Amino acid sequence: MSAVATRPASVAGRSSRKPARKPRGPIVWLREHIIQILAFFAFVYLLLPNVVVIIFSFNEPRGRYNLTFEQFSLNAWLHPCGAPGICSSVGLSLRIGFLATLFATLLGTMIAFALVRHRFPGRSSSNLLIFMPMATPEVVMGSSLLTLFVGPLHVIPLGFQTILIAHIMFCISFVVVTVKARLAGLDPRLEEAAMDLYANEWETLRRITLPLVAPGIAAAALLSFSLSFDDYIITSFNASPATQTFPMYVWGASTRGTPVQINVIGTIMFFVSLACVGVAQYVAFRRSRARAS
Fold first, then answer.
1. Which of 227, 241, 249, 222 is nearest to 160 (CA)?
2. Phi first, then psi: what are they for 72, rounded to 5°?
3. Whole-model pTM above 0.70?
4. DSSP state for residue 83 in the 8-state scheme
5. Contacts 24+ apart (CB under 8 A), 229-232
6. What is the spatial distance between Cα 61 and Cα 203, in angstroms, rounded to a whole number?
7. Who's near 124: CB < 8 A, 6+ residues apart?
8. What is the pLDDT of residue 44?
9. What is the C-alpha to C-alpha distance for residues 58 and 55, in angstroms, rounded to an integer?
10. Is the separation of the CB atoms in 227 and 170 below 8 Å?
């Protein structure tokens, strides 16, 4: 005769019932979301000046200075070149920016490949010298380049050429650092596998290495263009009175009255930058989806 032990119904009901969740207070919620809240305020702090620029691009000031919002107007957007000299300065900055980005990206990418993939005498010193333009104050760099251009040699007159040379020089360092970081995270086994499948060095570079390093090169190019288009100090040292870039125009206009067209150009550049970042993120998302599928 066997006895079967049974649990009381009340005990079984209590054991199967889930424990009630304790209500969370505001302190617990704040502790769990503190990172998101701080990130939100950081983004607001960073984007607030851009919002002010966008708002004041629709202003119609009564005086020379665009410092207080008077009334809504589309006049500056309909006539972006209404302020004398603004479009020529923007065009000069764009030309210098594109050329400096092109040369700095090509030279900086080759330097990064040489520093990461090859061992040669003076490699450590080269790594150290790459950081000098980034660590040197722009006032010192601008005055040093001015001494080089107008010194005893005086081989190049001040103007478009000297600004371009100066911008290429300080943009190369940022390109090298950015591309080096991408190359350091590249798995060398992918290139070895391509060569095991009878691909030569050129095919491996074209089909494997460059597509993997392309995001780093694109990021370096965008950074170079932003630095070149935005630079004022080095440009002011090495520009002639006849050459005036957009930052120099803005600085000169601030002393005699800031036209609304400056805000229009700034708004356009801001949205163009957002579009470039959005396209890059969309392409990366499509590639990740394609790999996953």
1. 241
2. -75, 135
3. yes
4. S
5. 229/93, 229/94, 229/96, 229/97, 229/269, 231/138, 231/167, 231/170
6. 60
7. none
8. 92
9. 6
10. yes
The predicted pLDDT at position 253 comes to 86
- Segments in the chain below pLDDT 70: 1-24, 152-154
Residue pair 266/230 in contact (Cβ under 8 Å)? The answer is no
Structure tokens at 259: 């036209």
Packing angle between helix 86-117 and helix 160-184, nearest 10 degrees? 40
pLDDT given for residue 24 in this prediction:
66
Instruction: Give 181-231 pLDDT, tens digit per residue.
Output: 888 888 778 877 888 787 787 888 888 888 888 888 998 999 999 999 999
- CA atoms within 13 A of residue 79's CA, in its CB half-sphere: 10
The pLDDT score that the predictor gives to residue 92 is 94
Q: Is the Cα dihedral 119, 121, 122, 126 positive or negative?
A: negative
Rounded CA separation 195/193 (Å): 5
pLDDT attached to residue 1: 43
Instruction: Look at residue 88 in the predicted model and tell me its pLDDT.
Output: 93
- What is the DSSP track for 152-204? SS--S-SSHHHHHHHHHHHHHHHHHHHHHHHHHTS-HHHHHHHHHTT--HHHH
CATH number of 84-258: 1.10.3720.10
Closest C-alpha among 212, 225, 203, 202 to residue 182? 212
Amino acid at residue number 108 = G
> What stretch of H or E contains 220?
helix 210-230
List Cβ neighbours of 16 (8 Å cut-off, separation of 6 or more): none
Give residue 6's pLDDT.
Answer: 52
